Amino acid sequence: MKNILLGNTGISVSRLGAGVLPMGPNQRNMAVEEGAAVVRHALDAGINFIDTAQYYRAYPYIRQALAGRNDDVVICSKSLAPDHEGMAAAIEEARRSLDRDVIEIFLLHEVRAGQFEQRQGAWDCLCDAREKGIVKAVGISTHDCDVTALMAQESQCDVVFTLINYAGLGIRKGDGPATAAEMERAISACHRSGKGVFSMKAFGGGNLTAQYQKALGYVLGVKDIDSVMIGFSGTKEVDEAVAFLEGKMPAGYVPDISQKKMWIEEDSCEGCGNCMRVCQSQAIFYNERGLAAIDSSRCLTCGYCAPACPVRAIILI
Description:
Elements: E1 3-5, E2 12-14, E3 16-19, H1 32-44, E4 49-51, H2 59-66, E5 74-79, H3 84-98, E6 103-108, H4 115-118, H5 120-132, E7 135-142, H6 145-151, E8 159-163, E9 172-173, E10 176-177, H7 180-192, E11 196-200, H8 212-221, E12 227-231, H9 235-245, E13 262-264, H10 274-278, E14 284-286, E15 292-294, H11 305-308, E16 314-316
Parallel strand pairs: 3-4, 3-12, 4-5, 5-6, 6-7, 7-8, 8-11, 11-12
Antiparallel strand pairs: 1-2, 9-10, 13-16, 14-15
Helix pairs in contact: 1-2, 3-5, 6-7
């Protein structure tokens, strides 16, 4: 698989990356050996770029996958920590849990509009860690096109991990939605300023999987994206992505999504009720915390709820 330099970092990454969120406790909660086997399969396929996070609780999958191997792997982790102390603890947790002296890339996780300045202590910690050599590159992950554009002007930012898909699902601008075109412009600004850019949610949290080739083709065609990160929970998913990248996927191929289900990420849900209003099956209800939940016995997996969610909390797993 072709590798590419990530902006001006000097770090070489594969065109596709492997995300471990879907296999972890927050989603499928796969056994460690089962998830590790998926990561090893991705490595064997030529993928050297792995995305994780403190919040995902997925370090054991990566550590076990790498045990006994000498792969030239680039690991990106991130933390929601708001201050210096919390970020320092997050970096040490990653180093200890992954059994690595150096974490290649570490990010502020999910920076929303107006938050970068509020998390200055955590940002200073990342920059200090880079200076000490325990992190090679620092940056942010975000769903917001304004935050992405802001990083083009941030001299200490090396990389940006941002959300984009052809339908614009989950792309934000302040308190409202934004378009893929707006995010493309922000990505281009980052690229011009020498930042490495890699993308998430090519399939809109699984909601665009039925349009697999259109969805993956779109993000791979955005010229200023260095690498496309895809969340994997099975070896077949790895093979599908690699086949598409290498031009070996049959025309008209559509993955089997019959066993997948809609799922709501409670930590992101704001309880606005938009999803309930568009669900014709009355499969969505408020749980005891006042957040949206899905009755799988009534859900038709039509996907109409996902675009109605302002915070991209509804995904297909």
